[in-house]
Amino acid sequence: MTDALQAFKGKYPSVPSSCYIDDSSRLIGDIEIGENSSVWPMVAARGDVNYIRIGVRTNIQDGTVLHVSRPSDDLPEGLPLIIGDDVTVGHKCMLHGCILGNRILVGMGAIVMDGVVVEDDVFIGAGTLVPPNKRLESGYLYVGNPMVKKRPLKESELAFLAVSADNYVRLKNDYLNNKQ
Question: Can you tell me where the transmembrane regions are (predicted)?
């Protein structure tokens, strides 16, 4: 499919043909991506000491880093990175050993740290730092460094979560069609 995929310890990324993976990105090891998702330029995703799962219709934008935490005495299973469906991860984000539900917008430059759980239907503002082991409740905007729960999402913002996913599915289709 692309030079962007690399095996590690016998595990190779699993990417359906409906996905767009930019050749300048690098996906290593135990990574599974759902249908109609996209990984844009300069993304680094290392499923080397644990696994990464990315849902359907999710987009990981330019310069983002996806990583995991290894098993340890404190965390015998370590921490995988799990990203749900219809998620938009903005440019230059860092997601590390956390769980993101469905219909989430992670603003540009946000950092989401180990053990964080983000419920469905959440906006994380640009530049936000989500400290380890926090839980972000469904239906809210979170901003700041460290993050704070700012306010409930408006109906228009909730609707935008699906619109953003739709836009990136159309864009990745354009890129796939352009490769042929």
Answer: none
